[in-house]
Specification:
Elements: H1 3-14, E1 46-60, E2 65-79, E3 85-100, E4 105-124, H2 140-144, E5 154-163, E6 177-190, E7 193-202, E8 210-220, E9 226-236, E10 242-254, E11 257-266, E12 272-285, H3 290-302, H4 307-328
Antiparallel strand pairs: 1-2, 1-12, 2-3, 3-4, 4-5, 5-6, 6-7, 7-8, 8-9, 9-10, 10-11, 11-12
Length: 330
């Protein structure tokens, strides 16, 4: 499929507004580890940070050079306006030390290797209607085996821009701002396996447009706090093309905090790439279900105590009663 066809497909999907409801989860929904992006938004009024520390070794046979890269990956996500929409700033800020043995020289480059801002919107959710996804109360196997309907993915679209601020040594000829568009699909194959696939068209209109894909398969263990993943990413551009493979593990410490680690490598020698990333994801959850919000609004209009405030008051009362009891008992 050529660039023109890809642009047409992305444009068609971006202008089709299907107003559906995302599935807000009580557990953090992180795009880490790896680069494949979930189809779902974080949820309205949820603030989320996803940060990683990276190290990479590159050897370039064409230039007879080798380099060490240290840096940080980051993504800041916020659910705004409604459940299906999020705004995200993501990027990588790195320091690359390059050695040229034949010339006996070294070079240092420090800047953003990625710097993007955009909106992601969920256009289709196969789990929107709970009636079509009721569990089988009589068969554990029926609920946990693969079913063909599980291949139907949730789909989101992304529109944003890549920023190239100042004199960036990694992209010296790129404009300050260039458009970016992407599609993300996510299928829950079984309760323990999730398949995510992305396709993106970046740096649109520049001398070096970039087409990429990412396919990730995640498996959670019997202890759902642990999960592993394997991911394949392909990048095609006149400036740089490669196929990357990643694998790693994530651990959920609590509903709002996850840590992860992954390793990866490329398949080319211009340059060859081996990298490792240690990361974490944390969210500030200010999400409120629509039903609770309506109940609180009605309670305020009637002069009664809102539901959340009432719960806090009851909890405080119980603690006070327990304290008084401890004071009396010997």
């Amino acid at each position: 499929m050529g660039f023109q066809n890809i642009k047409k497909c992305l444009l068609i999907i971006l202008i089709v507004p299907l107003f559906l409801n995302a599935q807000y989860t009580d557990v953090i929904n992180s795009n880490r580890p790896g680069r494949a992006v979930s189809a779902y938004a974080v949820g309205k009024n949820v603030i989320q940070a996803e940060i990683g520390i990276l190290y990479e070794q590159q050897d370039n046979a064409n230039f007879n050079s080798d380099s060490n890269i240290f840096g940080s990956d980051f993504a800041f996500r916020y659910g705004l306006l409604f459940e299906t929409l999020e705004i995200k700033w993501e990027g990588s800020f790195i320091n690359q030390n390059i050695t040229f043995p034949d010339l006996d020289t070294e070079e240092t480059r420090t800047d953003f290797s990625r710097n993007r801002l955009g909106l992601k919107y969920l256009v289709f959710d196969p789990f929107k209607n709970p009636e079509n996804n009721k569990p089988n109360l009589y068969s554990w196997r029926a609920n946990n085996k693969f079913q063909w309907k599980n291949l139907i993915p949730a789909v989101s679209v992304y529109a944003g821009a890549t920023f190239n601020l100042g004199e960036n040594p990694f992209y010296p000829t790129d404009p300050t701002v260039s458009p970016r568009a992407a599609i993300a699909a996510q299928s829950r194959l079984t309760p323990r396996f999730v398949l995510i696939s992305n396709i993106a068209y970046d740096r649109i209109g520049t001398d070096f447009p970039e087409l990429s894909y990412a396919v990730s398969l995640t498996h959670s263990f019997r202890d759902p706090k642990w999960s592993v993943f394997i991911e394949n990413q392909g990048i095609s551009s006149d400036r740089y093309s490669d196929i990357l493979l990643r694998t790693g593990v994530a651990y959920l410490f609590n509903p709002n905090f996850q840590a992860d680690f992954h390793l990866g490598s490329g398949f080319k020698d211009s340059p060859s790439r081996i990298f490792a990333v240690l990361g974490a994801s944390y969210r500030l959850d200010f999400h409120k279900d629509k039903l609770v919000a309506i109940q609180d609004q009605k309670a305020g209009e009637n002069g009664s105590i809102p539901r959340n405030a009432q719960k806090k008051k009851e909890k405080k009362k119980k603690k006070k009663g327990k304290k008084n009891k401890d004071d009396v008992d010997f």
